[in-house]
Prior knowledge:
This protein has seven helices and twelve strands. It is an alpha/beta fold. Among the domains are: 85-155, membrane protein fhac (Ubiquitin-like (UB roll)), CATH 3.10.20; 158-286, Rossmann fold (3-Layer(aba) Sandwich). The protein has a nine-stranded mixed beta sheet. The longest helix is centred in the first third of the chain and has 24 residues, at 42-65. Mean pLDDT is 80; it is low at 1-16 and 292-297.
Amino acid sequence: MRLSRAKGASGANPTARPRPPVRGRPNARSGRRPAARRPRRWGRWLGYGLPVVLLLGTGGLIWHSGILDRAASAAGEATLQLTGDLGLKVRDVLVEGRSHTESDQLLGLLGVRRGMPILAFDPGQARERLDQLPWVADAEVERRLPDTLFIRLIEKTPLALWQHDGKITVIDTRGDVIPGVSPGRFSKLLLVVGEDAAPHAAELIEMLNGEPDLAGKVTAAIRVGDRRWNLRLDGNIDVRLPEDGAPAAWSRFAQMVRQEHLLDHDVAVVDLRLPDRLIVRTSRGGVPPLRAKGQET
């Protein structure tokens, strides 16, 4: 039996492989050429990026060299000098509240001079410098255009002399040491003694001032065990205050002094630690306990 060929079949060898199309030639059926390869773009990126890299590198070198800072500083100094030439210069320095701070020390620390451009003076920096002075607790600094600097000082108040660790220093109302101050300048202040006496000195002095006539006789106060005070009157009488109720005991003692003239006698020790009586000892020996007037035995 013979196999018949299908109609329309060519006489070519059915097992023959078709030839691949030739690149670049038009397709016999579509008439279009195949897509060409895209050109590489690294050259375009190099053309754009190289100037940017050079620009950034040059800017970095200028920045690190300080050229811009020096130029800006020179321009700023020229501007300040111009404002001074226009009349904005320092002619007066007004200081309010200065009692203990030396004027030469104050002006030297501020670095201000007559005739300098007033806008070159920095009030914020000046205040920070003033806080370094031993007597200054706080300060306000202002530029009052066109030619005046105004400074208001709040100085520390010397409260007492503090004896501890074998030395004597001046303390303020907060119990802080005022550095560089000679105790000899304030020899009339109350002497407080003890490691923890300074923080409690303001409270003690406020209590003593409640009896001003008697407070003037107190020359020293010794802190005992961070609990209570022993007072020294007229340099030779010891008054022992209680741990609790010290203000009431102090008032009671003042009443006895006024009514019984207690300090006119040869008194060495007055013990106020008992709430209902004063125990008095003389330099020659003990005496019976004394009661405040009006109390029953």
